[in-house]
Structures are given as C-alpha cells and as structure tokens.
Amino acid sequence: MLGKGVVGGGGGTKAPKPSFVSYVRPEEIHTNEKEVTEKEVTLHLLPGEQLLCEASTVLKYVQEDSCQRGIYGKLVCTDFKIAFLGDDESALDNDETQFKNKVIGENDITLHCVDQIYGVFDEKKKPLFGQLKKYPEKLIIHCKDLRVFHFGLRYTKEEEVKRIVSGIIHHTQAPKLLKRLFLFSYATAAQNNTATDPKNHTVMFDTLKDWCWELERTKGNVKYKAVSVNEGYKVSDRLPAYFVVPTPLPEEDVRCFQGRGIPIWCWSCHNGCALLKMSALPKEQDDGLLQIQKSFLDGIYKTVHRPPYEIVKTEDLSSNFLSLQDIQTAYSKFKQLFLIDNSTEFWDTDIKWFSLLESSSWLDIIRRCLKKAIEITECLEAQNMNVLLLEENASDLCCLLSSLVQVMMDPHCRTRVGFQSLVQKEWIMGGHCFLDRCNHLRQSDKEEVPVFLLFLDCVWQLAHQHPPAFDFTETYLTVLSDSLYIPIFSTFFFNSPHQKDTNMHQRQLSLPLTQSKSSPKRGFFREETDHLIKNLLGKRISKLINSSDELQDNFREFYESWHSKPTDYHGLLLPHIEGPEIKVWAQRYLRWIPEAQILGGGRVATMSKLLEMMEEVEHLQEKIDERHHSQGALPAEAPSLLRSSARLSSLFPFALLQRHSSKPVLPTSGWKALGDEDDLAKREDEFVDLGDV
C-alpha cells in the first residue's frame, strides 16, 4: 500500500495535458529564442511596487514531469515578489473555474515566502548565499507555503542571469530594516484606495468599548474590568492600549513592573470561571527589589484567590509544556516531507514516508497542544476552576492555548467573524511576535518558529473532525496561513500593537524594535527568585488543586464522557486525540504535489455527488407535487450550481492548478489494481461552489 496515499489521498491518475500550455524541452529553447523574445507579457504591479531586475528566455520547469519540460517566459523580481511571466498567462485566465488569489498569481512568490534558494551546477544542487563567483544553470526556489519552483537559465543571457540571481538572493536573504518592508510602500501608495467591507464586523480590540463588549458577551463583566492605564503605551510597549484585569486589582499594580506579573483576562466561561494569563516579572539581582517583587506577588495571590475568584489552577507553560525549540525543530523536519523537487524524489521517499513523518514529531506536538487545551477546558467546565497560564512573555504558547480553548468552548469563535476577532484579540493584541517568529526581517540564521501555523493546524484537526461546527472551511484556514507571507496588510508583520501603531503612523520608536530574548533558564520563575516567589505563589496554588494522578483521571473521565454523547455543534467541542485521529493537513501540505491527489476523489468530490443527488431528489419531489395538484406542465429544471467540467480532486481547490502531467507517475505494479487509467482520466466530476471559504 502506498504510504502517502493513506495520508493525503495517494497515487495520481493520468491527467490530460491542457491544450493551451506550450511545453518545450530544455534543448528546444535555443531554437525558439527569437520567438520567445517577441512575446511580451504584461507585469501587473501593485500600488507602490517597483521592478528591480528581470531576465528573459527563462524556462519554468513542470515539476510533475521530473523537470524534463517547461514553459518559457520572463523571470522578474520586484520589491514585493518574484514572478514568472509565461506565454500561457492569457490562456490561464480563460481556464476552468479554479482557486485564484486576488493578490498573487500562480507563478508569483512574495519575497517573504522564499524559504531556501538552490542552484544547480553541473547537475549538483547547492544552496545559494551572498555573493556568487559562479552562477547556476538552474535556479530552485523552496517556498514557505511549500511550493517548489525550477527555473532553467541555460539559454538566458549571462548578464541577465547575474542580475536576476543576485537580485533574488539579496532581496530574499539579506537582513532588512522594518521600514523597508513592502507593506509601508503599499500603505502609502494605496491609502486612498482602501475600502472597508460593511459586512466585516471583526472586533479589533483597539478601543475600551471593544473590550467592554467582549466582557458583556461572555458575562465576565461582574468579576473583571477593562482598563485604559496603558493608553498611549505609557506603561508598557508589550501590552495593548486596553485590556482586562480582575476588578479588585489596583491600577497602580499594573504600573509597578510594566504590566508584568499581573493576571490578564482572556475569556469567561458560562459558569463564571475565567481563563487568565500572566507573564514573568523582570529579572532582578538586588535584594531590595526581590523583596518588592515578593510583596507584589503576595498581593496578586490574594487578589486571584479571594471570592469571587476562589480556586485557580496554574499552567506553567515555560517548564511543563513545549518549548519554542521543540516546535521549530519538529516543523523543520516535517516540511521537508513536502518540499519535493520532482516525481522521482517523491517516490524515493515513499517507502519511508511514515517513519519520517513520525520522527518529525509534528503530529505529536499537535496532539499535545489539543490534549493540554482539553485539560484546561475540563478545569473550566467540569471543575469550576479559574485557569492561569504562565509564560515568560505570555505571547506564544499562551496565545495558542487560550485561542484553542475558546474555539472548543465558545461557538462564536467557530464563526468566521468570531474566529477573526479571536485572532485579533489573542494574537495581535496579545503581542505575539509575528515579525520575529516568521523571521520577516531575516535578522538571524535561525528558521522560523511557526507557532501561529501550529494553532491553525490544531484548528484544522477540530474542523476536520467536526465540519458542521464551523462557519468556515479548511480552505479559509489554508489561505489564512498563506497570508503570513504576503506583506500587503499589517496584521502579521509586527511584534506588538505598539510597534504596529508607531510605525504605521510614521512615528519614531522610542524603544528597540527587537524583542528581548527569553531567559535560558527553564521554568516560569527565575533562578534568583525561585526560593522566594515559587514558594510564595507556586506552593500556595498547588494546595488548592488536585494531585497529578487525580487530574489525569478527571481528564480521562471528562474526555470519554463527552465523546460518548451525541455532539452538540453549538456547544462544547472536543477533538479526538488518539494517534490515528491526528492527521496530516493534506490541503495545505500536499496541495502542490500532483502525485498526492486523487482525481475525482476526496471530500469535495463526495459532497458534489451528494448535492447532485439531493438536487435530483428535490426535482423529483417537485414533479410529484405538480402531478398531485394537477397544476399543468412540469416546471423546467433549475440550473444547477454544480454543472461544470472542472475536475475535482482530493486537494481541491488548489489541485486544479496542477494538471499538466501527460503520463501516470505511479511506479508500482499496483497501478493496474486501481483500474484502467483511461477510464479514471475521463471521469468528470461536478464543481462545488466554494461559497465564502
């Protein structure tokens, strides 16, 4: 059995070569050079976008054909993207209905989306960095959205090769200044062209009114209050201008340590319990300051444990959960399974694919996140405990878990508007360092730490297991993950609301832009204050909660009890977390690999057939009603939304872009067992309208 077929919808079938694509082989390029230079394709630039360099007579190879054929055209680099302009672009516009990004095209790569660049020298693939002494005959670009592009430069003029290769390397790998990001150029040029969607009611949480509305919605306004003590970022540039704290907490306490060490409200449960988060206090060596911190935490302890707050369970995420290094290492291994250069490489890894998947630990990390979120949910829902999340800066794992808990417990967060508001509240206003975690400025040699992508993958697991509970599809999540690397809007390109506000308003920052590095010490409490603060806060809290064994028993009972009952899609939602239930997000990770799709298969194709049957049943019912009431002629058949010749696949809608293979690529004797390839290739399926994915 084919490994990847089980996870992503395995072996491909022969797809007809579209008639509009002009395929050529590398050796044919030279003879067609005159024809190539005569064909001009328009480069569409966004407001503020500038052309930097370009090269003609470039061959874009067809990935699924083992890079033996391709389309000739022009390769350009702007201050926003790398784009290939082939002579088939106009034909693509007339192609069957398919997914289209409104900002970037099929052959566009934003500069922030470039992961690694390789050059091929005498058939040897080498990574490219800095200044080159020798230029490659082929350029290979690995993207963060897992696309892989091959560009042949053998017949491109030498000077153009130098300019385009050097330009791409420089503008995608060299360290950048924040002000040089394209989003600033775009914002300046398009400021008079921006329009707001009146149907978009996403709560931005940038006013006191927004927080008061959220408190009222969750009925948390009895025990908690919205404060404006940080208005104008007078107290902290890490916190938002407005946020929510326990009602008895004096505003002077917020000012004491620049907002650190105070419990900040995230969300309230229907039973009155709340989810809170807290960051670490500043590291101090002075005994006098340590005593002040001790007294401060003692006051915080009294605040969060007196009625009506009572029992609080703490979750120290810095010592008892995942580290950022764990996430980084796992994803670095995981993504290599999908950055496939050609069909041969795909099948070479097939026999060991599952073992490589397991060794990456990415699915296990997803399972651990979901399990931890269920544990927190059990405390809130069943144990009637408040939960306090502790983390160094309360801006990574706190964001992830608080968001997951709300998706599970609050059906409003499973609507599109509610989900967008959740991301705005917990991630943007919560101070998640998108600029650093996505490494948008290329300031270090380290790879990105995809904490937000991990969250989206966890949400996908929930949506995949319980589709009716969500007001959006997996395509929405996939496109949202892609937007991390599109510097048009400012949502995912800053480390904090303060950094965004000061830069987007063209004001000079008074503090360094970079986030302070986390302490190498493990645990929420610093070594210097361990004997004081941990004894004060940690031990007191530990007396108020059950033992570890009891908590595990409670978790298992809560988990099994919920899954034993019919699912209420408008209420609490828990995922299955057993090993086989945690799956690979096929649409996002396998969408660019033609061999990993089933033409005419998958959920969308199944739904298409079901809708077709429902439509037929409805039409037959109309006929029966008409005859029963003797109302004359039968009504004409209503035009179906499903009638289209677009070929569906298990990776719809992205797989529609990958239909260039002219031969089956399954190199096993099991091909015949799948049925006659011509019959499979001729199978035409109906098109499902994506609606508002």
Automatic annotation (TrEMBL):
GO cellular component: membrane; sarcomere; sarcoplasmic reticulum
PROSITE patterns referenced in this protein's UniProt entry, alphabetically: PPASE_MYOTUBULARIN (PS51339)
Main location per the UniProt record: cytoplasm
InterPro entries: MTMR12-like_C, MTMR12_PTP, Myotubularin, Myotubularin-like_Pase_dom, PH-like_dom_sf, Prot-tyrosine_phosphatase-like
Subunit comment: Heterodimer with lipid phosphatase MTM1. Heterodimer with lipid phosphatase MTMR2.
Similarity field: Belongs to the protein-tyrosine phosphatase family. Non-receptor class myotubularin subfamily.
Protein name: Myotubularin-related protein 12
Gene, per the UniProt record: MTMR12
